[in-house]
Write a structure and sequence with these properties.
- The complex is a heterotrimer of chains A (164), B (99) and C (497).
- Chain A is an all-alpha fold and 164 residues long.
- Chain A folds into 2 domains: 1-78, Up-down Bundle (Four Helix Bundle (Hemerythrin (Met), subunit A)); 124-164.
- In chain A, 71% of the residues lie in helices and 0% in strands.
- The longest helix of chain A is centred in the middle third of the chain and has 26 residues, at 51-76.
- The model of chain A has no long low-confidence stretch (mean pLDDT 86).
- Chain B has a single domain (3-98), classed as Helix Hairpins.
- Chain B is 80% helix and 0% strand.
- Chain B contains 3 helices and no strands.
- In chain B, helix 1 (3-23) packs antiparallel against helix 2 and helix 2 runs antiparallel to helix 3.
- The model of chain B has no long low-confidence stretch (mean pLDDT 87).
- Chain C has 497 residues and is mainly alpha-helical.
- Chain C is 73% helix and 3% strand.
- Chain C has 20 helices and 4 strands.
- In chain C, helix 10 (240-265) runs parallel beside helix 12 (298-318) and helix 11 (270-293) packs parallel to helix 18.
- The mean pLDDT of chain C is 90.
- The chains are: A mainly alpha (164), B mainly alpha (99), C mainly alpha (497).
Chain lengths: 164, 99, 497
């Protein structure tokens, strides 16, 4: 019962912060709303018994991405506190498209009766996840390291001094 | 708690992100909205992992987190370059005709 | 689960390409930055070695290698598309000699990123699991975002890069959401596992929406209407050698991966995707051609034309289910063959724009390179550069589908197959669309042959001439003796089970 209440509260906070990210007129505020949303999601991961992922989420996302985003905002605004109206030139079809997509997703979820029968099962701790990374999914894991390498080369190419 | 609750929550977050991408003009604002979408699909994966499919969902969610972080690194590099050469970071994703 | 060293053979070609690329990045430390011969030799060697590995797989090994728990499979389709991708990569490596020197791009990272992208594409067409599909799709996209923005002081290039990144990330989220839904419905990421679940009678709206979103993600990446908004701006803003590279290889890799997803994961449920693809193919052909008609910039026109050509390739996938409800997977062979013809003619046409580049006087006494872009840049070139102009004419006629070029056979094979399976409407729309396309392709030829030159200082680059000649040769060769290539494409699909 207590868990249910907690999850509902988290869900409400999650949606509120997500909406704030999208509609806030100030990008710095948006970044902080995003940080709040990411931490709230991490709480939800804890409720879903994925504590390892929750830790990753807080460290990588909230630690890394938010810091970089803040740098990004600071480096690309003359006055970082200035207003960035979110819906200034918004196309009229944005809201209908988003609502249509949302309706499609929700209908798909609620018209799939098999889902109702699913019950929580132990979903795996860090040890099990590590085994999957280095055993069954080794090749995808290696490909992921290439992704990081490509990202690193790309970032250096773009950021270094010099011509071109 | 039903898995459909989590999935619906993820769907709402996802759509919020889509709306943000369609309405924002600032490149960083768009990237923030992409983060929303990425977060929503991770939530989906974790919820499925919890309800039935085991640790696999979490593994995939970690892949997607690693990807998003890399995308942000490269993306911010490009956005800063755009700012240096043009002094604003507005992009219009839906421009059909030019010249 | 244990893996044997033998399984590495499945990724050996891609690995060779990647190692060559990484060595090229490292080479910058040892080799003076003004010479590029070492980089070019290294990367060229990697491409040739990978082609040799693929050749030996095709002629000596023959059976497909399923590796790493069936996450990668090196079968004939993977070999076919990898060879096309490698051919395009090799040609781009030669022609990018011009772009890197003219624009002063560091060769180490340029060649390195091209090779990483190429190796990811080769892995992508061999991927048999959504996990590997997703990671490789992202490696190649990431490399291309950077390659698009690699001329770092050019605002158009910066803007194109941001636009590509943002729409690419958006598409990835769609793709992954679809994958998550499919995972929820079937409990697996493996294509064969999804096939088993569907065969057991799974028919939830969750799986339908998941498959739909995966296809939307693919449509974004290959630039099919209505998800093509980024294509013209990105292709126009990117340095032309990058444009040439991505316009051909991404389509080959993306359509290849889509074919594998459809044929391995959901062959018996073509009712879920055939109609969606039908509308997408029609819209892509019509919109691509109508937009191309209105362009004055040749580069932008070629960008829209590449959208239209995506539509032609999709016709083959959309008509795999014949009108009498039988499923004909062999139809996908015509898409593979079309992608092969498209590779050489499009690469050749973009290379011609690089070839005709000229210097623009910039601010403070420096000069800036400008590839040929508008019709007036090409006006009258038939007199001054008769051979190159003739080759450009060949590429344009091939793109328009005139015999005896490769493009004609590609379209003929495609539309004849569609009619054979009863899909007359889409074939008629396709033929009409390519008739319309003749207008804007011929317009370029008219300007080249019948107008007075407006630019006097074009500085052709010899290495690009080699690329144009090779691409022209391939376009003619496939057009004159298509038998072997069509047989290879058909065999690739036939063994795909």
């Amino acid at each position: 019962m207590l868990a249910t209440v907690a999850v509902v509260v988290i869900a409400v906070v999650l949606i509120a912060t997500a909406v704030a990210v999208v509609v806030s007129d100030n990008l710095v505020h948006s970044v902080f709303w995003l940080a709040a949303m990411l931490i709230t999601t991490a709480l939800l991961y804890v409720m879903l018994e994925a504590p390892f992922l929750a830790a990753i989420q807080v460290m990588l996302y909230t630690g890394g991405v938010i810091t970089m985003m803040l740098f990004g905002v600071m480096l690309t605004q003359r006055d970082p506190g200035s207003r960035v109206p979110s819906a200034s030139e918004a196309p009229g079809w944005a809201a209908p498209v988003a609502l249509g997509l949302g309706a499609t997703l929700l209908v798909a979820i609620w018209t799939t009766p098999e889902l109702a029968a699913l019950t929580p099962t132990p979903s795996g701790d860090a040890q099990k996840i590590g085994h999957m990374f280095l055993d069954r999914y080794l090749i995808a894991f290696e490909a992921l390291s290439v992704l990081l390498l490509a990202g690193m080369i790309g970032a250096i190419v773009l950021a270094r001094k010099g011509d071109a | 708690m039903d898995v459909r609750f989590y999935l619906s929550l993820a769907a709402v977050l996802f759509v919020t992100g889509v709306y943000g991408i369609l309405t924002r003009r600032n490149a960083i604002g768009i990237m923030l909205s992409v983060e929303l979408m990425a977060n929503a699909l991770n939530l989906n994966l974790v919820a499925f992992g919890r309800y039935g499919a085991g640790a696999l969902g979490q593994v995939f969610a970690m892949f997607s987190i690693a990807l998003t972080v890399t995308e942000v690194v490269v993306g911010l590099g490009i956005v800063v370059l755009l700012y240096r050469s043009r002094h604003d970071v507005m992009v219009n994703l839906a421009s059909e005709m030019k010249r | 689960m244990t893996f044997t060293i033998y399984e590495l053979a499945a990724m050996q070609p891609a690995l060779l390409v990647m190692i060559a690329g990484l060595l090229a990045v490292g080479l910058d430390t040892f080799v003076p930055s003004k010479t590029r011969i070492a980089h070019a030799m290294l990367c060229g060697g990697g491409v040739i070695a990978a082609m040799a590995a693929l050749g030996s797989q095709l002629y000596y090994q023959r059976t497909a290698i399923h590796a790493f728990g069936n996450m990668l499979v090196l079968d004939d389709m993977a070999c076919f598309l990898s060879l096309a991708i490698l051919a395009a990569t090799g040609l781009v490596l030669i022609s990018s000699d011009a772009d890197t020197t003219r624009r002063n791009i560091g060769f180490g990272e340029y060649y390195g990123l091209i090779m990483i992208a190429a190796s990811a594409m080769m892995m992508l067409v061999a991927s048999n699991d959504f996990m590997t599909i997703f990671v490789n799709l992202e490696v190649l996209s990431l490399a291309l975002y950077v390659l698009t923005g690699i001329t770092r002081k050019n605002p158009r290039s910066n803007e194109a890069s941001v636009k590509y990144l943002v729409s690419g990330a958006f598409a990835t989220c769609f793709f992954l959401m679809g994958v998550a839904f499919l995972y929820g419905a079937t409990g697996t990421f493996a294509l064969s596992g999804i096939r088993e679940a569907l065969a057991l009678g799974l028919d939830s709206s969750m799986a339908r929406v998941g498959l739909g979103m995966v296809m939307v993600g693919f449509a974004f990446k290959i630039g099919a209407v209505p998800f093509h908004m980024w294509v013209p701006d990105v292709y126009e803003g990117a340095p032309t050698s990058t444009t040439a590279f991505m316009s051909v290889t991404v389509k080959a890799a993306g359509v290849g991966a889509l074919i594998r997803v459809l044929l391995i994961a959901a062959p018996m449920r073509s009712d879920l995707w055939a109609d969606l693809l039908w509308w997408m193919a029609v819209a892509t052909m019509v919109v691509g051609n109508l937009m191309a008609l209105q362009q004055t910039s040749v580069k932008r026109m070629l960008a829209f034309s590449s959208v239209a050509h995506t539509g032609y390739a999709l016709v083959a996938l959309a008509t795999m289910r014949s009108t009498d409800e039988t499923f004909v997977p062999e139809a996908a062979a015509s898409a593979l063959f079309y992608l092969l013809t498209y590779t050489f003619m499009t690469l050749g046409a973009f290379s011609f724009l690089i070839y005709m580049g000229h210097e623009l006087p910039g601010k403070d006494g420096t000069s800036e390179w400008q590839d040929a872009e508008t019709l007036s840049d090409l006006a009258g070139m038939a007199d001054r550069r008769p051979w190159a102009a003739a080759m450009m004419g060949l590429f344009l006629l091939s793109l328009g589908g005139i015999p005896p070029t490769a493009g004609f056979l590609g379209k003929f094979y495609l539309f004849a197959g569609a009619i054979e399976r009863g899909h007359v409407t889409i074939a008629v729309i396709g033929v009409m669309a390519s008739l319309v396309s003749l207008y804007y392709y011929l317009r370029v030829i008219v300007w080249m042959y019948m107008k007075e030159p407006m630019i006097a200082d074009e500085k052709p680059h010899p290495s690009v001439a080699v690329v144009i000649a090779l691409a022209g040769l391939a376009t003619l060769l496939i057009g004159v003796m298509p038998g072997a290539f069509i047989a290879a494409a058909e065999h690739s699909i036939a063994v795909l089970r």
